[in-house]
Amino acid sequence: MPNDYNVSRTLRRWYDTHRRALPWRDTRDPYRIWISEVILQQTRVAQGMDYYHRFLERFPDVRALADASEQDVLRLWQGLGYYSRARNLHAAARDVRDRFAGRFPTDYAAVRSLSGIGDYTAAAIVSFATGAPYAVVDGNVLRVIGRLFAIDTPTDTSAGRHLYNDLARSLLPPDQAGTHNQAIMEFGALQCVPRNPDCSVCPLVARCAAHAAGTPERFPVKQHRTKTVDRYFHYFYVTT
DNA sequence: ATCCTGTGCT
DNA sequence: AGCACAGGAT
Protein backbone atom coordinates (compact mmCIF):
# COMPACT_ATOMS: atom_id res chain seq x y z
CA MET A 1 0.00 0.00 0.00
CA PRO A 2 1.58 3.27 -1.11
CA ASN A 3 0.97 5.64 1.75
CA ASP A 4 4.10 7.63 1.01
CA TYR A 5 2.34 10.07 -1.34
CA ASN A 6 4.68 9.30 -4.23
CA VAL A 7 1.67 8.86 -6.50
CA SER A 8 0.40 12.27 -5.39
CA ARG A 9 3.79 13.86 -5.96
CA THR A 10 3.85 12.48 -9.49
CA LEU A 11 0.30 13.66 -10.14
CA ARG A 12 1.04 17.15 -8.83
CA ARG A 13 4.22 17.42 -10.88
CA TRP A 14 2.27 16.38 -13.96
CA TYR A 15 -0.45 18.88 -13.06
CA ASP A 16 2.04 21.74 -12.84
CA THR A 17 2.95 21.39 -16.48
CA HIS A 18 -0.28 20.08 -18.02
CA ARG A 19 -3.07 21.88 -16.22
CA ARG A 20 -5.47 24.00 -18.23
CA ALA A 21 -5.79 27.63 -17.19
CA LEU A 22 -9.41 27.80 -16.04
CA PRO A 23 -11.03 30.84 -14.43
CA TRP A 24 -12.34 28.95 -11.40
CA ARG A 25 -8.89 27.63 -10.56
CA ASP A 26 -6.71 29.58 -8.15
CA THR A 27 -9.66 31.18 -6.45
CA ARG A 28 -10.31 30.46 -2.80
CA ASP A 29 -13.79 31.91 -2.88
CA PRO A 30 -16.06 28.99 -1.98
CA TYR A 31 -18.97 30.70 -3.73
CA ARG A 32 -17.19 30.82 -7.07
CA ILE A 33 -15.91 27.27 -6.64
CA TRP A 34 -19.45 26.13 -5.88
CA ILE A 35 -20.91 27.78 -8.98
CA SER A 36 -18.22 26.29 -11.21
CA GLU A 37 -18.66 22.80 -9.77
CA VAL A 38 -22.43 22.77 -10.23
CA ILE A 39 -22.15 24.01 -13.81
CA LEU A 40 -19.40 21.50 -14.58
CA GLN A 41 -21.46 18.61 -13.24
CA GLN A 42 -23.51 18.69 -16.38
CA THR A 43 -21.55 20.67 -18.95
CA ARG A 44 -18.25 20.47 -20.79
CA VAL A 45 -15.68 23.08 -19.91
CA ALA A 46 -15.96 24.76 -23.32
CA GLN A 47 -19.66 25.50 -23.00
CA GLY A 48 -19.79 25.97 -19.25
CA MET A 49 -17.32 28.85 -19.45
CA ASP A 50 -19.83 31.37 -20.83
CA TYR A 51 -22.43 30.45 -18.25
CA TYR A 52 -19.89 30.75 -15.46
CA HIS A 53 -18.92 34.28 -16.46
CA ARG A 54 -22.48 35.42 -17.03
CA PHE A 55 -23.60 33.94 -13.75
CA LEU A 56 -20.90 35.65 -11.72
CA GLU A 57 -21.40 38.95 -13.47
CA ARG A 58 -25.08 38.89 -12.62
CA PHE A 59 -24.65 37.29 -9.17
CA PRO A 60 -21.19 38.29 -7.90
CA ASP A 61 -21.73 36.83 -4.43
CA VAL A 62 -24.03 34.49 -2.58
CA ARG A 63 -26.15 37.33 -1.28
CA ALA A 64 -26.87 38.62 -4.78
CA LEU A 65 -27.96 35.13 -5.75
CA ALA A 66 -30.10 34.73 -2.65
CA ASP A 67 -31.85 38.05 -3.19
CA ALA A 68 -32.63 37.33 -6.84
CA SER A 69 -35.94 35.82 -7.88
CA GLU A 70 -36.01 32.19 -8.95
CA GLN A 71 -37.16 33.38 -12.35
CA ASP A 72 -34.00 35.44 -12.79
CA VAL A 73 -31.83 32.49 -11.83
CA LEU A 74 -33.65 30.15 -14.20
CA ARG A 75 -33.40 32.68 -17.00
CA LEU A 76 -29.62 32.75 -16.68
CA TRP A 77 -29.57 28.96 -16.50
CA GLN A 78 -31.58 28.64 -19.70
CA GLY A 79 -29.91 26.26 -22.15
CA LEU A 80 -28.04 24.29 -19.49
CA GLY A 81 -30.87 21.90 -18.67
CA TYR A 82 -31.22 20.12 -15.33
CA TYR A 83 -33.26 23.03 -14.02
CA SER A 84 -33.67 21.43 -10.60
CA ARG A 85 -29.99 22.15 -10.12
CA ALA A 86 -30.62 25.85 -10.71
CA ARG A 87 -33.45 25.69 -8.19
CA ASN A 88 -31.16 23.95 -5.72
CA LEU A 89 -28.54 26.63 -6.32
CA HIS A 90 -31.03 29.34 -5.53
CA ALA A 91 -32.42 27.53 -2.48
CA ALA A 92 -28.92 26.90 -1.16
CA ALA A 93 -28.01 30.57 -1.58
CA ARG A 94 -31.04 31.57 0.47
CA ASP A 95 -30.09 28.95 3.03
CA VAL A 96 -26.61 30.45 3.28
CA ARG A 97 -28.08 33.90 3.63
CA ASP A 98 -30.43 32.79 6.40
CA ARG A 99 -28.39 30.21 8.29
CA PHE A 100 -24.84 31.49 7.77
CA ALA A 101 -25.37 35.24 7.68
CA GLY A 102 -24.59 35.40 3.97
CA ARG A 103 -21.12 33.90 4.38
CA PHE A 104 -20.66 30.77 2.30
CA PRO A 105 -19.50 28.09 4.76
CA THR A 106 -16.18 26.23 4.44
CA ASP A 107 -16.92 23.61 7.08
CA TYR A 108 -17.55 20.25 5.40
CA ALA A 109 -20.72 19.34 7.30
CA ALA A 110 -22.22 22.78 6.72
CA VAL A 111 -21.39 22.72 3.00
CA ARG A 112 -22.66 19.18 2.65
CA SER A 113 -25.99 20.15 4.21
CA LEU A 114 -26.88 22.52 1.34
CA SER A 115 -29.32 21.54 -1.42
CA GLY A 116 -27.66 20.03 -4.46
CA ILE A 117 -24.33 19.46 -2.73
CA GLY A 118 -23.34 15.83 -2.26
CA ASP A 119 -20.12 14.19 -1.12
CA TYR A 120 -18.18 15.09 -4.24
CA THR A 121 -19.10 18.77 -4.43
CA ALA A 122 -18.64 19.29 -0.69
CA ALA A 123 -15.14 17.78 -0.79
CA ALA A 124 -14.25 19.89 -3.83
CA ILE A 125 -15.45 23.17 -2.35
CA VAL A 126 -13.86 22.63 1.05
CA SER A 127 -10.51 21.32 -0.18
CA PHE A 128 -10.12 23.93 -2.93
CA ALA A 129 -11.16 26.81 -0.70
CA THR A 130 -9.27 25.89 2.48
CA GLY A 131 -7.05 22.90 1.75
CA ALA A 132 -8.96 20.77 4.24
CA PRO A 133 -8.14 17.07 3.70
CA TYR A 134 -11.27 15.71 2.02
CA ALA A 135 -10.68 13.45 -0.97
CA VAL A 136 -12.84 14.06 -4.04
CA VAL A 137 -14.20 11.00 -5.81
CA ASP A 138 -15.74 11.80 -9.19
CA GLY A 139 -15.78 9.87 -12.46
CA ASN A 140 -12.21 10.88 -13.27
CA VAL A 141 -10.91 9.77 -9.89
CA LEU A 142 -12.74 6.45 -10.19
CA ARG A 143 -10.98 5.82 -13.49
CA VAL A 144 -7.50 6.77 -12.29
CA ILE A 145 -7.75 4.72 -9.10
CA GLY A 146 -9.57 1.83 -10.76
CA ARG A 147 -6.73 1.50 -13.25
CA LEU A 148 -3.84 2.19 -10.90
CA PHE A 149 -4.94 -0.68 -8.67
CA ALA A 150 -6.81 -2.76 -11.28
CA ILE A 151 -9.87 -2.88 -9.08
CA ASP A 152 -12.40 -5.55 -9.99
CA THR A 153 -15.01 -4.50 -7.45
CA PRO A 154 -17.69 -2.53 -9.32
CA THR A 155 -17.78 1.18 -8.53
CA ASP A 156 -21.55 1.24 -8.12
CA THR A 157 -21.82 -1.11 -5.16
CA SER A 158 -21.48 -0.30 -1.48
CA ALA A 159 -18.29 -2.37 -1.28
CA GLY A 160 -16.90 -0.57 -4.31
CA ARG A 161 -17.75 2.88 -3.03
CA HIS A 162 -16.10 2.04 0.27
CA LEU A 163 -12.97 0.71 -1.39
CA TYR A 164 -12.61 3.66 -3.76
CA ASN A 165 -13.19 6.16 -0.97
CA ASP A 166 -10.54 4.48 1.17
CA LEU A 167 -8.02 4.43 -1.65
CA ALA A 168 -8.73 8.06 -2.55
CA ARG A 169 -8.10 9.01 1.08
CA SER A 170 -4.90 6.97 1.21
CA LEU A 171 -3.49 8.89 -1.76
CA LEU A 172 -4.35 12.30 -0.31
CA PRO A 173 -1.50 14.22 1.32
CA PRO A 174 -3.14 16.13 4.20
CA ASP A 175 -1.15 19.28 3.56
CA GLN A 176 -1.72 19.34 -0.21
CA ALA A 177 -5.34 18.27 -0.43
CA GLY A 178 -6.61 21.00 -2.74
CA THR A 179 -3.80 20.70 -5.26
CA HIS A 180 -3.88 16.92 -5.12
CA ASN A 181 -7.62 16.82 -5.77
CA GLN A 182 -7.30 19.18 -8.73
CA ALA A 183 -4.34 17.19 -10.03
CA ILE A 184 -5.95 13.75 -9.94
CA MET A 185 -9.13 15.01 -11.62
CA GLU A 186 -7.24 16.87 -14.33
CA PHE A 187 -5.10 13.79 -14.85
CA GLY A 188 -8.22 11.71 -15.39
CA ALA A 189 -9.69 14.32 -17.73
CA LEU A 190 -6.61 14.76 -19.94
CA GLN A 191 -4.25 11.78 -19.57
CA CYS A 192 -6.04 8.78 -18.09
CA VAL A 193 -8.98 9.14 -20.49
CA PRO A 194 -11.77 6.58 -20.91
CA ARG A 195 -10.81 5.42 -24.41
CA ASN A 196 -7.40 4.91 -25.98
CA PRO A 197 -5.32 6.39 -23.18
CA ASP A 198 -1.78 7.11 -24.38
CA CYS A 199 0.02 5.13 -21.69
CA SER A 200 3.37 5.66 -23.44
CA VAL A 201 3.51 9.21 -22.04
CA CYS A 202 1.94 8.44 -18.65
CA PRO A 203 4.10 9.31 -15.64
CA LEU A 204 2.42 6.55 -13.61
CA VAL A 205 2.72 3.78 -16.18
CA ALA A 206 5.30 1.90 -14.11
CA ARG A 207 2.95 1.78 -11.12
CA CYS A 208 -0.28 1.09 -13.02
CA ALA A 209 -1.72 -2.37 -12.44
CA ALA A 210 -4.19 -2.05 -15.31
CA HIS A 211 -1.39 -1.25 -17.74
CA ALA A 212 0.61 -4.17 -16.40
CA ALA A 213 -2.40 -6.37 -17.10
CA GLY A 214 -2.56 -4.91 -20.60
CA THR A 215 -6.21 -3.85 -20.23
CA PRO A 216 -6.45 -0.25 -19.01
CA GLU A 217 -9.80 0.28 -20.72
CA ARG A 218 -11.39 -2.51 -18.70
CA PHE A 219 -11.35 -0.20 -15.67
CA PRO A 220 -13.20 1.12 -13.80
CA VAL A 221 -15.53 -1.87 -13.59
CA LYS A 222 -19.21 -1.04 -13.32
CA GLN A 223 -22.27 -3.07 -12.61
CA HIS A 224 -25.23 -0.81 -13.21
CA ARG A 225 -27.90 -3.22 -14.18
CA THR A 226 -31.03 -1.17 -13.74
CA LYS A 227 -32.19 -3.36 -16.60
CA THR A 228 -34.80 -5.86 -15.63
CA VAL A 229 -33.48 -9.38 -15.64
CA ASP A 230 -35.72 -12.32 -16.34
CA ARG A 231 -35.49 -14.88 -13.61
CA TYR A 232 -36.93 -18.35 -13.79
CA PHE A 233 -37.83 -20.27 -10.69
CA HIS A 234 -38.41 -23.96 -10.49
CA TYR A 235 -40.39 -25.17 -7.58
CA PHE A 236 -42.45 -28.12 -6.62
CA TYR A 237 -44.77 -29.45 -4.02
CA VAL A 238 -43.87 -32.10 -1.56
CA THR A 239 -46.92 -33.99 -0.41
CA THR A 240 -47.15 -36.73 2.08
C1' DA B 1 -30.34 0.40 -3.57
C1' DT B 2 -32.94 2.82 -7.18
C1' DC B 3 -34.43 6.76 -9.58
C1' DC B 4 -33.83 11.29 -11.95
C1' DT B 5 -32.28 14.53 -15.65
C1' DG B 6 -30.62 16.33 -20.98
C1' DT B 7 -27.13 15.39 -24.00
C1' DG B 8 -24.52 12.79 -27.11
C1' DC B 9 -22.91 8.52 -28.73
C1' DT B 10 -23.85 4.11 -31.14
C1' DA C 1 -34.23 3.98 -30.54
C1' DG C 2 -31.72 2.94 -26.68
C1' DC C 3 -28.17 3.43 -23.60
C1' DA C 4 -24.13 5.79 -20.90
C1' DC C 5 -22.91 9.47 -18.45
C1' DA C 6 -22.56 12.04 -13.54
C1' DG C 7 -23.52 13.41 -9.80
C1' DG C 8 -27.45 14.18 -6.21
C1' DA C 9 -31.85 12.85 -4.11
C1' DT C 10 -34.83 9.71 -2.02
UniProtKB/TrEMBL annotation:
InterPro entries listed in its UniProt record: A/G_AdeGlyc_MutY, DNA_glycosylase, Endonuclease-III-like_CS2, HhH-GPD_domain, HhH_base_excis_C, MIG/MutY
PROSITE patterns for the chain: ENDONUCLEASE_III_2
Metal-binding among keywords: yes
Catalytic class of the enzyme: hydrolase
SMART domains: ENDO3c
UniProt GO molecular function: 4 iron, 4 sulfur cluster binding; 8-oxo-7,8-dihydroguanine DNA N-glycosylase activity; adenine/guanine mispair binding; metal ion binding; oxidized purine DNA binding; purine-specific mismatch base pair DNA N-glycosylase activity
Keyword annotations: 4Fe-4S, DNA damage, DNA repair, Glycosidase, Hydrolase, Iron, Iron-sulfur, Metal-binding
Cofactors: [4Fe-4S] cluster
EC number: 3.2.2.31
Recorded catalytic activity of this chain's protein: Hydrolyzes free adenine bases from 7,8-dihydro-8-oxoguanine:adenine mismatched double-stranded DNA, leaving an apurinic site
GO biological process: base-excision repair; mismatch repair
Domain named HhH-GPD: residues: 39-190
PANTHER family found in the cross-reference section: ADENINE DNA GLYCOSYLASE
Stated family: Belongs to the Nth/MutY family.
NCBIfam families: mutY (TIGR01084)
Primary role: Adenine glycosylase active on G-A mispairs. MutY also corrects error-prone DNA synthesis past GO lesions which are due to the oxidatively damaged form of guanine: 7,8-dihydro-8-oxoguanine (8-oxo-dGTP).
Protein name (record): Adenine DNA glycosylase
UniProt lineage: Bacteria, Pseudomonadati, Bacteroidota, Bacteroidia, Bacteroidales
